Amino acid sequence: MSFSTKIFLWFLLFLLIHPLEAVPSIIPLNGSCTDRCGSIVLKFPFGSGFGCGHPAFSRFIKCTSGVLQFSTGTGIYTISSLDYSTNTLVLTDPFMSTCSSMQNSGSFTLDHSTPFSIMKENIFVLLGCSTTSAVFDPKQDLCDTGSGSNVCRGLYSCKGVTGIGLEPNGPISTCCVYDPPVPIGSGYGLNLPRLQCSSYSSIYGFGGDEGDPMKWQFGISLQYNNSYFTDDSCKNCEDSGGVCGFSGADESFACICRNGVNTTINCYGRGYAWSGTWRHKIQTEMSVGGVLFFWMMMLFM
Which residues are the signal sequence here (predicted)? Predict the structure, then answer.
């Protein structure tokens, strides 16, 4: 076999092998990731379940029956709104007291290791507290007795206070606008049994009328860390119609396309073209090419 013939055959081998190497890495399927949960649009770093969005968020966020939920050590809360322009979301605690309905509440904590923090605009109010509660210790100074008194008067004017055994417009001596020594969300939280209080309320806005508690905005407003975009991978994925997620033991980036196929880049031309059917076709063509190459080698030897 001449030298030029060998060169030609090696070049042909390269052409046969190269298309296989060009096929993007196909990652094992994470399951179904969606870009919406009920009426809430989901964008990175949020996701609809495990394997969707950023792994640091996926541990706390999931979509269940069209309801976006947030999990902490003290319970599961509904995310009532999500604002990407301000990097904020609002949690709704079903046991939290509002002006229209007051009831015995559970505790609330937010671990400091989460990518979320409680916004300073939140006003936490402890209701139906024992007069022996530590929050009323003058040496601790845990209650806001200034503007906080107006908040307490507003809540105690609500008919809903009957739900915790109080009469409307009664004394506010059992109410405390709580100012903890360690911010909630730093591993401290609201421990109502320890604080000897029946219920709590959280107000993140007054709805333009501080004098009407029926217009107040009840919920827990959180801000999230938005430093998870390290490159353009996710933007390219979302621009191609995919949903950003992760896969594997190392939780590496994955772009989940609408037909369920995952790639390491984007969904342009891969939402169908790189599905199992087409991958099988490529492998079949490689097998035929291998036989052809072997035949040519035998011919020229």
Answer: 1-22
